[in-house]
Amino acid sequence: MLDQDLPCIAADAAARPIHTVRPATLQPFLASLPPGQAGFLRDGGFTARADELILLPGGDGIAGAVLGLGDDRSPFAFGSLPFRLPEGNWRLEAGDFDASAAVLGFCLGGYRYGAFKPAKRASARLVVPPGHERALSQAAAAWMVRDLVNAPANLLGPAELADVALDLGRRHGADVMRVSGEALTAQYPTVATVGRGADRAPVVAGFSWRGSAATDSSPLVWLCGKGVCFDSGGYDLKPAAGMLRMKKDMGGAATVLGIARILMEADLPLRLAVRIGCVENSVSGQAFRPMDVIRTRRGLTVEVGNTDAEGRLVLCDLLAEASDEKPDLLLDCATLTGAARVAVGPDLPALFANDEAWAESFLGAGMDASDPMWRLPLWDGYDAWLDSPVADLNNVSSKPFAGAVVAALFMRRFLAPGTPWAHLDLYAWNDTTRPGRPEGGEALGMRAACLAIERKLFTT
């Protein structure tokens, strides 16, 4: 899953051209073509609207292609090309677009999950000149995240997800760590509690890395991810329909690994620490129960109001550990609540942040990277909804409202004072196929997070 060779990319070779046109430049473009090709486009009704594609005839077959961009400035304007163009090598002619965004969009559209079923056809290949390494890195990370989220739970359990994290760390020279068994119970008791009902044992995996130019005083970024490889809901069992996509409940951990991969490949001068809680939430005689009380790493006691609110339990010990290290940013990613999807839908991760400057950085980066998110409030007035008569707090609210907000407030309780923290409650999935976004697992918020971190820490 780490070795993404991006088969939609070709080495420098002979290739047919892809011309790009916007409505404002259509007439000059037509005037620049041979009369036969210009007439072909006119007769075909080509108007240069977004995602409009026409193949140009030549003397011995297809001479090239013309892609309408409309007003679309996102990478996804190029996302349908890999499987709409004929197989073979293609190159992008200069035009009114960002070349790196075009490369990224082409690669995002070239992904298909093919572990068990071969694709109906190979994708077209784009010849990419030097200078677009960052776009290719982002694309490879997105392919990795998608592969992880798409993998069936019988093949990607806690141990396998932990292995991917450790392999990623080792590849970049990081110091890796894996905690299980009695050590897990001692260091991460909530992770151990959530995972104890499954035959496949829970694990916390992670690594520590620093860029080649980083020092002991370089910015410290902690990334924590929810890695629930399958979520049955536990004793608060989900209905059958609610389990159909629960292999994707490790999407937060996958996204964290994608963020880490991009940051490490960019060799930014920072110190990076990663932790993912890898568990399966199952039903058995060993599984945790409603109204159990758990003592956490932070020392707070938690009454279990619902075993299907397990993600915040997986994360709370990780957040306690991370915040005690006084990071310049602590970011967690999780497929945490259905309430966030009700609030902002599947495409927008819900952003929670306790630091205004970081919130602005994430939101701005999301728009600029065409990887948007939407901020929801850490509303203090709802904090008392987590009160418990027998423990320091409950893992769910006593009221049926604002579920995503309450989940974020729960996790905030475990932070050391003064920790700059951002939480992304994301869907990690595309329900349908759109240009550059095939149905299945998705790395939502990944590119935005990387851009926000780079801008905030290293742009003066």
TrEMBL record:
Q: Which SUPFAM superfamilies match?
A: Zn-dependent exopeptidases
Q: Which GO terms describe its molecular function?
A: manganese ion binding; metalloaminopeptidase activity
GO BP annotation list: proteolysis
Q: Which Pfam families match?
A: Peptidase_M17, Peptidase_M17_N_1
Taxonomically, which superkingdom?
Bacteria
User: Is Metal-binding there in the keyword field?
Assistant: no
Kindly list the GO CC terms recorded for this protein: cytoplasm
> Which residue ranges does the record assign to the Cytosol aminopeptidase domain?
306-313
Q: Check the record and name the InterPro entries matching this protein.
A: Leucine_aapep/pepB, Macro_dom-like, Peptidase_M17_C, Peptidase_M17_N_1
Q: What keywords were assigned to this record? A: Aminopeptidase, Hydrolase, Manganese, Protease
User: Which family does the UniProt entry place this protein in?
Assistant: Belongs to the peptidase M17 family.
Which protein is depicted?
Leucyl aminopeptidase family protein
Q: Which organism is it from?
A: Limobrevibacterium gyesilva
For this protein's source organism, the top of the classification is:
Bacteria, Pseudomonadati, Pseudomonadota, Alphaproteobacteria, Acetobacterales
